[in-house]
Amino acid sequence: MNDFANKVAVVTGATRGCGRAIAVELGRLGMTVFVTGRSTRSARSPLNRPETIEETAELVEAAGGRAVTVRCDFTSVPDVDNLRDRIGERLDVLVDDVWGGDMFLDFQHAYWESSIDDALHMVRNAVDTHLIALHRLVPLVIRRPGGLVIEVTDGEDDEYVEAGIPYYVAKCSVRALGRALGEELAGHGCTGLAVTPGFLRSESMLDVFGVTEANWREAIGKTAPPSFAVSETPSYLARGVAALVTDPEVARFAGRTLASWTLMRTYGFTDLDGTKPDFGRWLSEVRHAGLDQAKADSAPFR
């Protein structure tokens, strides 16, 4: 633990979901964590969610870390420049988890029948933000060997799963960034890669299905699809990220996209309830095998 007390991390998009959980787990290692995002107690982002970076910071400090909140819109180069200047000389871990695309999702229409403005806003929020963050913050990471940059995406490969072309472009782009960073950072003695959760029980997903973390199973097969039985909390991926941060041989994963279930199999951690959700195995043995998802027993996949 003392090895990380002097280390510094930045988590972009740390207001909620995986970003919040990752910030907390890095705090649990004793790190100083810059908690960044657009939603504060004084002003919500256009997503109009109640979670704030201040709440995340309190969770980081409760876990044993030191939190520094910086309100930052990652579509704004001056905002990110301000964040860079706040960080100072040392940055050991950058976790790039900006998203902000929920309000632009359109799974109901063909791309050419949907709003082009929404499509471009999604790409702006989901891809341009990552490019801006990397351009301004990676120079801090590569100042010393051993730095780690982790891109957070959705999906471990580029298979199209009918989620809409703009969403597909956004998430494939982040995986591509992970591959490119694996090559680019190696020459500086640093590591770049990407990670993805499985079926995520984020705050917004729970709201969509009309349940809470306490009663989420009530939604399975009702407001939520059968696959929700193999869902995971944001802390599951966050524990995988913490395992990567503490792995002295993390460079062996350079350029890869690692799913929460792959990280679980590698490092052996559990979700908050002690289970080990394996959404990848469920996809392979149920959905891709053409089995009746409503009748599939989820127990072997947890």
Question: What layout of secondary structure does this protein have?
Answer:
Blueprint: E1 8-12, H1 17-28, E2 32-37, H2 53-62, E3 66-71, H3 77-87, E4 93-96, H4 116-141, E5 148-152, H5 165-186, E6 191-196, H6 203-208, H7 234-246, E7 257-259, H8 260-267, H9 279-287
Parallel strand pairs: 1-2, 1-4, 2-3, 4-5, 5-6, 6-7
Helix pairs in contact: 1-2, 1-7, 3-4, 4-5, 7-8
Q: What are the salient characteristics of this protein?
A:
302 residues; alpha/beta; Rossmann fold; seven-stranded parallel β-sheet; 9 helices; 12% strand; globular
Describe the model.
The chain has 302 residues and is an alpha/beta fold. The chain has helices at residues 17-28, 53-62, 77-87, 116-141, 165-186, 203-208, 234-246, 260-267, 279-287, and strands spanning 8-12, 32-37, 66-71, 93-96, 148-152, 191-196, 257-259. Strands 3-2-1-4-5-6-7 form a seven-stranded parallel β-sheet, sandwiched between helices. The longest helix has 26 residues, at 116-141. The mean pLDDT is 96.
| CATH architecture label name | 3-Layer(aba) Sandwich
Structural domain tally: 1
Cα separation of the termini:
29 Å
Indicate the mean pLDDT. 96
Kindly identify the CATH topology: Rossmann fold
Name of the level-1 CATH class: Alpha Beta
Q: What Rg is obtained from the alpha carbons, in whole angstroms?
A: 18 Å
Q: What characteristic shape results from the CA principal axes?
A: globular
Summarize the structure.
With 302 residues, this protein is α/β, with parallel strands linked by helices.
